[in-house]
Write the structure tokens for this entry.
Amino acid sequence: LDWGIPIVQPVGGHAIFMDARSFNPHIPQDEFPAQVLASQLYLDSGIRGMERGIVSAGRDPETGEHSYPKLELTRLAIPRRVYTQSHMDVVVEATKEVFDNREKTVGLKMVYEPKQLRFFQGRFESL
């Protein structure tokens, strides 16, 4: 099935990377589109993803401004021999549901930013 969900091709052996900027084109990069996608998947279905974009890129050490990477990706890791086909069906169906309702999503603002590992410990609120 091709539902138009933007993913990085070719698909890797251990993860699928979704192009969050294409997934959520209405969310500017400084409102964390990859974090939005990871958050929405978790809130809607309990699926844990990992933001790999502006949050992970951190800040420029000289200016203190966000670093703006070319890619805004949300990573879904798929450990071998852990998930059943039923698990994968839930991931696919939940991702399609989030994709179909993406226009309702809004950006995020960072309300807590630790000095290190902000992609693990940062906290966000909806705008």
Summary: The mean pLDDT is 93. The longest strand covers residues 15-19. Strands lie at 15-19, 50-52, 73-77, 108-112, 123-126. Helices lie at 20-23, 33-45, 54-57, 85-100, 118-121.
